[in-house]
Specification:
single chain; mainly alpha; about 85% helix
Length: about 230
């Protein structure tokens, strides 16, 4: 990368790591930088959380209802198979650009979380459930003592995958929809004006945010798993 950037006019096509780092240091003190980071993080991570809640609730409802699983199977398959760009362009017909990244992030997160939680519920020990029914253990204690220990590993695995997906899809939605004051808008501007150091600097910011949110969220899940395991 550094050698390519050293070629005459090569910096227009490929910035060196030093150029990208220096540009990032220039961006950090600006209010516009933090505004873009805050707006994108709020919408993308908000979409992730919203989808996690909805997917978990629907998986819990579908676990004992084959008809509901059959009803949800086609839309889940469609979301898994359809390119993200198609959903983004279609969603722009219905939604404001500011809501686009939240919607697309939630949409991409739903299938892995729903399918993994559903699988975890299916694999719950039937003997333990039967024992709980015989001894009339309250539903709340069943959820905490039987279902959660079984489902949490599946949920954790799905969350790790979904967090990466939601950031890629969410930023792509911003690049196409161009809502003001977002990371996607900054990436698009960098591309239009051939500001390659900006492009690499913002890409580094996205990677950092995705890793940071994944670490924080999975730490919370691990903490919950530790409490459940006691």
């Amino acid at each position: 990368m550094a050698l390519a950037a050293a070629v005459p006019h090569g910096g227009l096509l490929l910035a060196s790591p030093v150029q990208a780092a220096l540009r990032l240091l220039e961006l950090l003190p600006s209010t516009a930088f933090w505004q873009a980071v805050g707006n994108s993080s709020l919408r993308i991570f908000g979409g992730f959380l919203l989808s996690c809640v909805l997917a978990t609730l629907l998986a819990a409802l579908a676990a004992g209802r084959p008809w509901l699983q059959d009803l949800l199977a086609p839309p889940v398959t469609v979301v898994k198979a359809t390119p993200v760009a198609s959903f983004i362009i279609l969603a722009l017909v219905w939604l404001d650009a500011r809501s686009l990244s939240l919607f697309i992030s939630a949409l991409m997160v739903f299938p892995p979380v729903y399918l993994n939680v559903l699988e975890g519920l299916r694999r719950t020990d039937k003997k333990l459930l039967e024992l709980a029914r015989v001894y009339r253990i309250p539903r709340r204690r069943r959820i905490w003592g039987i279902y959660l220990p079984q489902v949490l590993p599946y949920f954790r695995s799905a969350s790790s995958l979904a967090l990466g997906l939601c950031w890629k899809a969410g930023v792509a939605a911003e690049v196409i929809g161009l809502p003001a004051g977002t990371i996607g808008e900054r990436l698009y501007t960098a591309k239009v004006y051939l500001q390659t150091p900006d492009l690499f600097a913002w890409t580094a910011v996205i990677l950092f945010l995705a890793a940071a949110f994944e670490r924080l969220f999975l730490s919370a899940v691990n903490a919950l798993a530790g409490k459940v395991g006691r």
